Amino acid sequence: MVKGVIFDLDGVICFTDKYHYLAWKKLADRLGIYFDEQINNRLRGVSRMDSLNIILEKSNVEYTQEQKESFAKEKNDEYVKLLKNLSAKDVDNDTRKTLHKLKEMGIKIAVGSSSKNTPLILKQIELDTLFDFVADGNCITHSKPHPEVFLKAAEGINLEPKDCLVVEDAISGIDAGLNGGFRTIAIGDARKHPHTTYKINEIKDILDIVA
Predict the structure, then answer these.
(1) Which residues are bridge partners to 121 per DSSP?
(2) Cα separation values, 145 from 1, 148, 149, 204, Å
(3) Taking 80 as the threshold, does the pLDDT of residue 75 lie above it?
(4) How many CA atoms lie within 13 A of 210 on its CB side?
(5) 71: how many CB neighbours lie within 10 A of its CB?
(6) Eight-state DSSP code of residue 185
(7) pTM of the entire structure?
(8) Are 194 and 86 in contact (CB under 8 A)?
(9) The sheet that has 198-199: what strands, in order across it?
């Protein structure tokens, strides 16, 4: 029996990939580092500093930790500016209806996101009061595929991992869910994961799984 559903945010509830890409691209261009959509795809579900280290793989320069932290802040400042373009219109009606339906069914819903900007994003898309609990990059020390963020989300809604489903669009997110003992639902690129519990085409398909 499913008692809770934990959602990744970016790429599942809303889509901020384009803003991440533009912010990282601006930084990479300034540093003279090659960066493209394929590299950007490797950053899904990965923490800010780990993402930066992936980008710096293309650099011949050795940067200090202080410089790296400055780069990460520079990227995030640009990303936060771009997030101001987000609004409730960036969440489609099916997604919003599915979230409300799950709550009507007595199923707890939570967010499990590596992003430290989760509170801002939820506010921009007007979902900041809907979820029963939000675990994000501000309360974890390990990014996905470590299961910490999902374990904290499950704890926040007072449920065991075996009673929850994790919904993810990233391979690393599915790994994180499985590593934590959760059943997982893959959407988007995560559907390529060979060991995910379920695969769906649209968020509303979750309702068929929990029925």
Answers:
(1) none
(2) 25, 9, 10, 25
(3) yes
(4) 28
(5) 21
(6) E
(7) 0.87
(8) no
(9) 133-135, 108-112, 4-7, 164-168, 183-186, 198-199
Which listed residue (8, 136, 169, 175) is catalytic?
A: 8
Residue with tokens 């970016």: 10
Phi/psi at 115 (nearest 5 deg)? Answer: -75, 135
When pLDDT is averaged across residues 117-130 and rounded to a whole number, the result is: 96
Name the CATH topology of 17-83. DNA polymerase; domain 1 (1.10.150)
Mean pLDDT of 21-49: 92
The question of whether 10 is a catalytic residue gets the answer yes
Give the homologous superfamily in CATH for domain 4-15+90-210. HAD superfamily/HAD-like (3.40.50.1000)
Residue 64: CB atoms within 10 Å: 8
- Give catalytic status of residue 77 as yes or no: no
The angle formed by the CA atoms of residues 137, 16 and 194, to the nearest 5 degrees, is: 75
Domain ranges of the chain: 4-15+90-210, 17-83
Residue appearing with tokens 């650099």: 59
